Amino acid sequence: MIEKLAHPLGALSRPLGSLAQSVRTLARPLEGLTDMLFPQVCVVCRKTLDALEQQLCSACLTDFAPFPNPLAGGQAVIRSVNFHFGLGAIPSAAWSLYPYQSNGALHDALHAMKYQGLFPLGCLFGRRLGELVQSAGGPGELAAIVPVPLHPLKRIERSYNQSEAIASGMAEVLDLPVVEDAIERSAYTGSQTGLGITERRKNMAGGFRPAARNSRQISGRVLLVDDVLTTGATMVAAASALREAGADEVAFAVVAVTEEKV
Ligand SMILES: [Zn+2]
């Protein structure tokens, strides 16, 4: 019976195959039509993008006001970590593209990347961050890029982790592997507000742990990646879990950093 059925189905597959071919042939001009009907717009100001722009228009990119030189962002990261957690928590190297702004174009873009599931926007920031690392003298000998993991419940809620998108853009430029399962969140942590350095460290110590199962053994110098560094609590805790997982050194890369005026 099955054999008998197979025959007419086999005959059917030919017209279906040629239909698929026709759809493919039509797809190219349709792409142009789709662009005309649903033009690519800037995620921040909704202006129609020109052929060379991706996700963001050049006016919004200019509004982001990057650090004045390739080293300044990393220095701001180190100042912030030192201010909140002391010298012992400072990463082996650090890079950042922008001083964080609590409103305006950069804030809107970072918010869209985090909450609208815009993977290509995360990759775009990641590629820019990768280029910054290169222009700041290169990353040195790095073994892997590790995105800061989201708590599994948050990941389900948001459907994607923006740090993974940033890490994947950086990996493209720096030609390094991304290891997404080196560490994991161990618990929700309470607010850090009003705590001293020691209490903050203790509070965050339980925030991450080496993953029970990981796809790749972590060793050597690792680049830890996140979207925004505010006090550094998340990065410092994740770095400590990474060292526990086998990393000898941890460097930090973030898209934006809240500057400490110290
Ligand atoms: Zn724009």
Automatic annotation (TrEMBL):
Domain named Phosphoribosyltransferase: residues: 164-256
Pfam families the UniProt entry points to: Pribosyltran (PF00156)
Signal peptide segment: none
Family: Belongs to the ComF/GntX family.
Protein name: ComF family protein
Lineage, opening ranks: Bacteria, Pseudomonadati, Chlorobiota, Chlorobiia, Chlorobiales
